[in-house]
Amino acid sequence: MENASSTDTVFVFVHGAWHGSGQWAATQRALAGLGAASVAVDLPGHGFDAPLPTGYLLPGQPGLLTERSQLAAVTMDDCAEAVLSVLRQVRRHRTAVLVAHSAGGGPASLAAERAPELVDRIVYLSAFVPGGRARFSDYLGSPENASALGRNLDLGDPEALGAVRINPLSPDPAYLDELRETHYHDTPLDRFDRWRSALSPDLPLAIPTAPVTLTATRWGRIPRTFLRCAEDRALAPAAQDLMIAEADRAFPRSPFTVRTLPGSHTPFAARPGELATVLVS
């Protein structure tokens, strides 16, 4: 897309695991300064209204490793519908650009597959692309992603919990160091403490594990861009490249336009102005 403007284009942001709509705020402010409209989605179980494990905010965090998540019943369909609801609201704009980060690529892709007429371009910001493999977990566990960090962040048994659970409020300095090195290594430490406090502990298990099926006549017809994160430690660049290559091979009609950004998995935290500039260019 070219020359985004407040009257012509709206960016619809879909966050990744444990994040929420609020984490896009700095990028949205930068976009507004460039004349572009935007809106951010809260996927079910995320954002300030996300239900928390009952002991999460209590001293000692009782039950955090074993209490079944209140989000266990959330489905990929539920998440895609949240995206579609926002896309329907903003369709008065001439151009709608859907921007998905990380695990948000699954719900965004399914929404675009179900209503391609609502999406003029889809942008994957180091995000899951189900073009070659149907589940995000298929790429997370691939040899290409072997260098990724964060394998010690998950708590308990995800199947028993019904969620992939982390502890952003952990009192353990080693745990917090791994959280920062995985997702926010280029975000200043004082800002990281504020960012982690806004994360939700539970990711509905369906988001990384439920299959997303795409077709050439629907998702495959939408122009698409992949924004690679060159120093990504949560989703290795090699895994990002694998998703791009497999999607282009499966859906050659409209191959990815690929751009590379410097830095970590979360450029909306470390350099939101730069991210906004890339989006409108």
From TrEMBL:
<dbReference type="Pfam" id="PF12697">
    <property type="entry name" value="Abhydrolase_6"/>
</dbReference>
<dbReference type="InterPro" id="IPR000073">
    <property type="entry name" value="AB_hydrolase_1"/>
</dbReference>
<dbReference type="GO" id="GO:0003824">
    <property type="term" value="F:catalytic activity"/>
</dbReference>
<dbReference type="InterPro" id="IPR052897">
    <property type="entry name" value="Sec-Metab_Biosynth_Hydrolase"/>
</dbReference>
<feature type="domain" description="AB hydrolase-1">
    <location>
        <begin position="11"/>
        <end position="276"/>
    </location>
</feature>
<dbReference type="InterPro" id="IPR029058">
    <property type="entry name" value="AB_hydrolase_fold"/>
</dbReference>
<protein>
    <recommendedName>
        <fullName>AB hydrolase-1 domain-containing protein</fullName>
    </recommendedName>
</protein>
